[in-house]
Amino acid sequence: MFKKLVRTTAIFGRSLLSASVLMALFAGLSPAQETATIDAETAKALLQRVKDLESQVSLLKAQMQGLSASAGTAPGAAPVSTASGPPPAQPEVMPGHGADSNGAPRLQLRGYADVGWNASDQKGSTNSFALGQFNLFITSRLTDKASFLSETVVEADPATNQFGIDLERLELIYAVSDRLNFQFGRYHTAMGFYNTAYHHSALMQTALGRPFLFDFEDHGGILPVHSVGMSATGIVSSKLGLHYSAELGNGRNPRSDVNPVQNVSDDNNGKAFNLGFFVRPDRVPGLQFGFSNYHDHVTPPGKANVTENILVAHVVYQNSSFEFLNEAALLRHSINGTNFTSNIPGFYSQVSKQFGSYRPYLRYEYLNVPGSDPLYSDVGLVHGPKAGLRFSLNDFAALKIEYGREMHRGLSSVNRVGTQLAFAF
């Protein structure tokens, strides 16, 4: 289109030049010669032709300017107006960006969801089809160093069958260097491996669900897997593959009738602090091991304040066809002003092997909460195995089937079977 306009402009230019030559010849003729050579009507027609050519050339110039301006804008942007009047206002540009479209923030959206069927021999339970989490994962690069991340989940409450919306993660990330990165907002607490390796996408994890030690707070989990505050992460030694994570947040609320994640206000002036280290040695790709220490002051309603310390250690090995995950946690709850301390041990171990599109897996879990614990005595002892098979339909969908047996202190064992179709979109 642009080349065609240029050729057309050249043709009109030559025509205009010819008309100008004719006008010069007219100017050099005497009145008698002008009368003898050309009459008044012919001269009038030639002058009108010149005016027409000038108008068309002006129009072509305006179109060429509009085409040149639009070539520098993003696809789908509004064309530059050629009408008279004041120039349009320029769009505001974020600090650290140029005015071109290549520097503007670009939002990327991915989605995950799952549906399934579950049954158990627990008294009073029914087999049911179930919608899992509908997860919208959004990222946006703001500058060379700043980026944004959010994870919004829509899911139904099993007790009410009503849907609710949870903003699971919202982080503004600023990368100073490989050794120092800041995160601000709501994030997954960096304790152990599973909580930061697998977020809210069932497709990404091998089994149907998370280990109940690392289950989400609103699903009955006893670890503070979400935090609101700020954190710093980075590499201590590239040679050793040593990384660190330091977090400062609001902590959690142990009340059963409110959200345990303190999104807006903290119950007390003390802040939760978590410090962790992990190693990924280059000599053994896929190996990772590390530990973390979480410290907080909890104020349960109607009870004495509790000091909480959580130690988590992990050793995992993963490659494209094999995984071996092992994590252990120890929760220590001390009632302030007394010598009482409650210890809660827990662990899980999971192994799986890929055979083509099939991946069988086995997991064993254990959690033992003493009846004297000031926060989670109702959980008690729960342990048992889970065995399942994951079949990858393609890179964006997987079908899983799983059997599990849960054994509780003072209660009958429960057998569970479930299926799940997890996918990305």
CATH class of the largest domain: Mainly Beta
| Helix proportion range | 10-25%
Our Rg estimate from Cα atoms comes to 35 Å
How many β-strand runs?
17
Largest β sheet strand count, sense and barrel closure: 16 strands, antiparallel, barrel
Structurally, the number of domains stands at 2
Give me the CATH superfamily of the largest domain.
Porin
Give unreliable regions as ranges: 1-13, 15-38, 66-101
Spell out the helices and strands N to C.
HHHEEEEEEHEEEEEEEEEEE
The neighbouring-strand order within the major sheet is: 1-3-4-5-6-7-8-9-10-11-12-13-14-15-16-17
Work out the strand percent.
35-45%
Query: What is the second-level CATH architecture of the largest domain?
Result: Beta Barrel
Number of helical stretches of at least 4 residues: 4
The coarse silhouette is globular
Indicate the structural class: alpha+beta
> CATH topology of the largest domain, which one?
Porin
**What is the overall pLDDT average?**
83
Straight-line N-to-C gap:
38 Å
